[in-house]
Amino acid sequence: MKISVVIPVYNAESTIFQTLESLRAQSFQPLEIIVVNDGSTDGTLEILRDQADIKLLDHSHRGIVPALNDGLAAASGQYIARMDADDLCHPERIEQQASYLDAFPTIGMVGSRVKFGGDTQQQAGYSAYVDWINTLIEPNEIALNRFIESPFAHPSVMFRRELPEQFGAYRDGPFPEDYELWLRWMANGVKAAKVDQELIIWNDPPNRLSRTDERYSIDAFYETKAEYLFQWLEKHNPHHPEAIIWGAGRVTRKRAQVLTRHGLRITHYIDLKPRDLPCGTPVIHHSEIPPADTCFILPMVGNRGARRKIHDFLYESGFVKGKNFLPAS
User: Fold this and answer.
1) Four-point Cα dihedral 133, 194, 97, 204, nearest 10
2) Which positions ≥6 away from 281 have C-beta within 8 Å?
3) How far apart are CA 322 and CA 297, in angstroms?
4) Looking at residue 123, what is its pLDDT?
5) Confidence at 20, pLDDT banded by 50, 70, 90
6) What is the pLDDT of residues 216-272, one digit of tens each?
7) Half-sphere exposure of 325 toward its Cβ, with a 13 Å CA cutoff?
8) What is the pTM for the complete model shown?
9) What is 3-216's CATH superfamily?
10) pLDDT greater than 80 at residue 275
11) What percent of the chain is helix, strand and coil (3-state, nearest 5)?
12) Residue 323 and residue 275: Cα distance in Å, rounded?
C-alpha cells in the first residue's frame, strides 16, 4: 500500500460519512483509510462499523494524541496523509501530494493551501490565519516563518512514514501536538513544502479542539516554540545569545521572557516610545536600531498589519530574514 490516511474521530456522526466519501472520490486509489474511534458517545461508531473499506480501531476515550499514534502504528503506507473527521478533500488531493513527494525526495512533508470552511465574518481570526498559511508554499518560506504561528493546517499534510520512526511521533503534553511535531521535525532537518492548490476544505466548528482545549492557547504556542526557537538561534544567530526584541508591550515582554529562561539575553526592546523598563533593559526607537551586521532582531509584535510594516522596514534597512532577523510573533 502506498498511501495510508489516518483519521482520529470523536463524536463526529454528522460529518464522518462525508469525510470518508471525499476520500473514496480521490483520483488516487486504493487508499488505506485508518479511522481511530476515540471513545465516541454518539452514533459515530455505528456509522463506522458499516464502512467496509476502512480499517477501524475502536478505543476508549483517551484524547487525540493516543488516537493519532495508534493510527500511525497501524499504517502500512509509504506515505501517511492526515485527515480530520469534519473536513473534505479535493478529488486530487492525495494524487497531488503523493506526486510531489515522489518528485522531490528531499522533502519530508507536504501540505497544501486550504479553503476556509467557516464564516469569515464571525470567525475572522481563523480566516486571517488561513490567509496567512496559504502564503507559505516553498520550503524556505515555511522554515523562516514557522515561529510566527503553525504554518500548516494539520489535516492537510502528508509525510513519509519514516519520519515518526526517525524523529518521534506525536507527543502528549500541555502544547498543540501538531505544531510541536512540525517544529521538532524541522529542527532535525526535515524539509516541508506545500502544493500550491487548495486541496482541503478546513472547517471551523465551535467545538473544535483548538477553540476549547487549553493546549491550543496563545501562551501554549509560545511555550512550545520557545524551545525550538532558541535551538534555531544557537545555530544561526551570529550574536547568540544576544538579541533585540521588537515590541515592548507588557504581553510581548512576558512572552519574550520565556526565551530568557532558555538562555536568551535581551539587549534592547524596540518600541515607538523609548524608555527604561523596570527590568533595566532599555527601549529604543526603531530609528536607533544598530546596523544589520551588528545585531539580531526578533520581531514579536502580533498584529499582522504592524508585522508587515516591521518586516518592510527591516528589509529597507538592509536586514535579511534568517540572517539578521527572524519573525517570532
Assistant:
1) 0
2) 266, 267, 268, 269
3) 10
4) 86
5) very high
6) 677 888 888 999 999 999 999 999 999 999 998 888 999 999 999 999 999 999 998
7) 27
8) 0.93
9) Spore Coat Polysaccharide Biosynthesis Protein SpsA; Chain A (3.90.550.10)
10) no
11) 40, 20, 40
12) 28
- Output the pLDDT for position 272: 86
The verdict on whether omega for the bond into residue 30 sits within 30 degrees of 0, i.e. cis, is yes
Q: Per-residue pLDDT for 201 more than 80? A: yes
For residue 152, give the 3-state DSSP assignment.
coil
CB of 95 closer than 8 Å to CB of 108: no
Residue of 223, 96, 203 whose CA lies nearest to 158: 96
Grid coordinates given for 189: 532537518
From CA 309, how far away is CA 329, in angstroms rounded? 13
pLDDT for position 134: 98
Residue 211 has pLDDT above 50, yes or no: no
| Mean pLDDT of the region 288-301 | 97
Q: Where are the alpha helices (DSSP H) in 148-288?
A: 162-167, 177-187, 209-212, 218-236, 250-262
89 pLDDT exceeds 50? yes
Determine the Cα–Cα distance for residues 268 and 1; give it in Å rounded to an integer.
55
Q: Is residue 192 within 8 Å of 182, Cβ to Cβ?
A: yes
Instruction: Record the cell numbers describing residue 244, joined without a space.
Output: 533585540
Confidence of residue 121 (pLDDT cuts 50, 70, 90): confident
Q: Which helix (H) or strand (E) holds 17?
A: helix 16-24
What secondary structure letter does DSSP report for 58?
E
Burial tier of 107 (Cβ tally within 10 Å: 0-12, 13-18, 19+): middle
The secondary structure of 270-315, three-state, reads: ECCCCEECCCCCEEECHHHCCCHHHCCEEECCCCHHHHHHHHHHHH
Return phi, psi of residue 119, to 5°: -90, 115
Q: Which fold has domain 219-316?
A: Rossmann fold (3.40.50)
Domain ranges of the chain: 3-216, 219-316
The whole-angstrom separation of Cα 50 and Cα 199 is 27
Q: What is the mean pLDDT of the chain?
A: 93
